[in-house]
Amino acid sequence: MHEPARLFGTPLSNYYNKVKIALIELERPFTEVLHLPGEQWPDKGSPSGKIPFLETADGFIYESQAIVEYLEDTTPDHSCYPSSATEKARCRELTQTIELYIELPARRLYPAAFWGRPFQQNLADEVLQEVSHGLRILGRRALFSPWIGGNNFTHADAASWTHLTTVSNALRALKQPDVLSEGIPNLRDYLKHALTRPSIERADNDLRQAWHNRNQKTTS
Ligand SMILES: N[C@@H](CCC(=O)N[C@@H](CS)C(=O)NCC(=O)O)C(=O)O
């Protein structure tokens, strides 16, 4: 029986939601601790100062992928990876492709898209080029039939849903071309299908509620 872990961060964060989906899928008990970027970081929590980080009986763990792998390694009775080493590597390829070549470049637009900072079209043009390149890489491996790697839900779907939703929301907020749907023709269907998974449905509801709370705070 696992001690409940404490997940630090906010449902507004795509990396936080990736870990939260893993916790739910692996049936690990956990509580959520609201911890916003900009607050003073706990000394032990996250050496990078970023969220998410997880407090476990073994100490604090940061970096979402390290947390996911830790949860896999310490949950002997469940897994969100295929059993074969090659298939597992495929899931990690997909996750890294999305994070390094799509989410990371797109992240440069989040201050303008989500936090009211000034928008620069030349920055957006650069980002769109980089994201389109990332989508071409992703297209060489991703199946989206119905899950990103094929028949079964894996951790790569948690990453895919949370990051692609966030990037898509950012581009829409900034009225930029929908390069995601151009690069992944069945993206809409995939994201819709992802919401049939209870873990993703819960993360999505919590995300919407967190935006609602934040918007109410900023308008009151
Ligand atoms: N590579 C990190 C990325 C985490 C990340 O970028 N988190 C964002 C929130 S989604 C953050 O903490 N931003 C605040 C900052 O960069 O200082 C991970 O996988 O955990």
UniProtKB/TrEMBL annotation:
Q: Read off the PROSITE patterns from this record.
A: GST_CTER, GST_NTER
- Annotated GST N-terminal domain residues: 3-79
- UniProt xrefs under InterPro entries: Glutathione-S-Trfase_C-like (IPR010987), Glutathione-S-Trfase_C_sf (IPR036282), Glutathione_S-Trfase (IPR040079), Glutathione_S-Trfase_N (IPR004045), GST_Omega/HSP26 (IPR050983), Thioredoxin-like_sf (IPR036249)
* Record-linked SUPFAM superfamilies: GST C-terminal domain-like, Thioredoxin-like
- Pfam families assigned to the protein according to its UniProt record, in alphabetical order: GST_C_2, GST_N_3
- All residue ranges annotated as the GST C-terminal domain in the record: 84-219
Please identify the protein, giving its name as recorded: Glutathione S-transferase
